[in-house]
Amino acid sequence: MSEQNAGSQNSGFNTRAVHAGQEFEPRTGAVVPPLHFSSTYAQDGIGGLRSGYEYGRGGNPTRDALQEQLAALEGGAHAYSFGSGLAAEDALIRALCRPGDRIVLGNDAYGGTYRLISRVLGPWGIANQPVDMADLDGVRAAVGTAGTDGAARLVWVETPSNPLMKITDIAALAEVAHDAGALLVVDNTFASPYLQNPLALGADVVVHSTTKYIGGHSDVVGGAVVLNDEELAEKVGFVQFAVGAVSGPMDAFLTTRGLKTLGVRMERHSDNAQKIAEWLVGRPGVEKVLYPGLPDHPGHELAAKQMRRFGGMISVQFAGGEAAARTVAESTRLFTLAESLGGIESLMNYPSEMTHASVKGTELAVPVNLLRLSVGIEDAADLIADLDAAIARL
What we know:
It is an enzyme of class 2 (transferase). Its EC number is 2.5.1.48. This protein folds into 2 domains: about 5-260, Type I PLP-dependent aspartate aminotransferase-like (Major domain) (Aspartate Aminotransferase, domain 2, 3-Layer(aba) Sandwich); about 260-390, Aspartate Aminotransferase, domain 1, CATH 3.90.1150. The protein contains 14 helices and 12 strands. It has helices at about 5, 15-20, 60-75, 85-95, 110-120, 135-145, 170-180, 190-195, 230-245, 250-260, 260-280, 300-305, 320-330, 380-390, and strands at about 80, 100-105, 125-130, 155-160, 185, 205-210, 225, 285-290, 315-320, 335, 345-350, 370-375. α2 runs antiparallel to α3, α4 (about 85-95) crosses α9 (about 230-245) and α6 runs parallel beside α7. The longest helix is centred in the C-terminal third of the chain and has 19 residues, at about 260-280. It is globular, with a radius of gyration of 21 Å.
């Protein structure tokens, strides 16, 4: 099998993860492509590009390899890598929206996304309207009618959502958006390309914080935009070049290295999270366990339909309110209290004061009795024992 065929869309996910964009270096035969740090490239005369590269902001072989890998795993024709997830979102919105446009987004959106749209892009003239994405009639009303003033330009959804773990029907939402002449953007960070492929379900654009499951080792920050439409891709690519919030060579290299093992990691994350979620149900002091892998989760059947597995993220609400949540968050040994998610190590987060502090006092506010667990790849029995000891303190 040739390197090109090994990374093609006809190959399995893990084959693509290992081979897409990873052709061996022809001069030495190095199996891992070299890391290109150069900021500029020699030209054969004025305007004569020797290798197709001119300046590091416009292109870098290491970043290009990552972008090819991302596109292959999401089933997209084009991918663009950025310095952070929010940089990717900002570039996408600036590429596709203009002052006067409106974004309809989930009323449980990530706090950083809402802050970007409302506080950074809002003064630029981009309006937003949070809605419950599970209510398709409500979404339809919020999006408006194609060709009329005020119709939404983008419909923006996270599924599973952060941190309330809501599941949205991507195919149905795509139909609603397209009927109104809007584009559907899906934040696929929680699921990762291994568990879910929104483009295949009708979405127009996929965004990622590659910092999370794609990088997978809590050692690199990045973001990505993946899409199929050539015209839209050219607009995003222009903003990437013109604004320059690109991922650096080392960041791209680390992300590529992490992405190669995404499939096997997500299997372990999902196995562990399922065991922990089932163990948490009915624990003294636990009010509610939010995990789509539980049969009583309102989105369980939909998640089973549009996802490969149920993922590594769990949210837990405690009967003792804020005090109980804080006690557990500050009492674990293996679960580290920290921002972010998706790494091989287990993390715990108190969203109300950490990742979602920017939406306190709004309709997007997170319950103060909620903890978000990013379940790592440690032994599940050890993670359960750690949680057991912390909950016992209640």
